[in-house]
Design goal:
This protein is mainly alpha-helical and about 60 residues long. The protein has helices at about 5-10, 15-20, 25-35, 40-50, 55.
């Protein structure tokens, strides 16, 4: 999952993303550590970050 990478590229802190997505800070921290989450949570995060689920989950990003 590309959550931390995308969050940092957008210049957002964990608390800021929490406010935008209505996902608790602890949940975001856990997702960034573990790399997985519920689909419903991923939808909220992708929407708040203005990216597709594929992009958030690590699909469709060009290799660097």
């Amino acid at each position: 999952m590309n959550l931390k990478k995308i969050r940092l590229e957008k210049g957002l802190s964990v608390p800021a993303l929490s406010r935008l997505s209505d996902v608790p800070v602890r949940t975001i921290e856990d997702i960034e550590r573990r790399g997985d989450c519920k689909v419903s949570t991923a939808v909220k995060l992708a929407s708040a970050l203005a990216v597709s689920l594929d992009c958030l989950c690590g699909y469709g990003l060009p290799e660097k």
